[in-house]
Inverse folding.
C-alpha cells in the first residue's frame, strides 16, 4: 500500500502490514497480503503494487475505488484483488 501524502507534523498515521516473506508453489495461486491499520479519520484511497527488478520497480497493479482496478498488460488475467470493499485489505492473488 502506498500513502498518498505524509501526515501533518505531529499527527500519527496508520501502518502497512505485510508479511516478511510469502511462500508460493510453482503453478499454483498465491495471495500477496497487504493490510493497512488506519488511525481514526484515515481512509485508504489507493493501493499500488510494484515488482522490484534490476531495472528498478515496475508497476503491477493499481487498486482505486473511484477509478477501478488497473492491471498492467503483462499481468492481465493473472492478478486479481483478493477481497472487495475497503482498501484496508489491499491483498492481491497472483494466479499460476
Amino acid at each position: 500500500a502506498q500513502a498518498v501524502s505524509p501526515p501533518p507534523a505531529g499527527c500519527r498515521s496508520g501502518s502497512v502490514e505485510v508479511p516478511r516473506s510469502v511462500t508460493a508453489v510453482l503453478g499454483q495461486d498465491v495471495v500477496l497480503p497487504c493490510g493497512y491499520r488506519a488511525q481514526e479519520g484515515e481512509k485508504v484511497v489507493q493501493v499500488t503494487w510494484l515488482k522490484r527488478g534490476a531495472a528498478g520497480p515496475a508497476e503491477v497493479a493499481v487498486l482505486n475505488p473511484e477509478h477501478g482496478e488497473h492491471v498492467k498488460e503483462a499481468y492481465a488475467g493473472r492478478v486479481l484483488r483478493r477481497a472487495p470493499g475497503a482498501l484496508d485489505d489491499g491483498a492481491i492473488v497472483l494466479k499460476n
The first strand starts at residue 15 and ends at 17. Residues 24 and 30 are 6 Å apart (CA to CA).
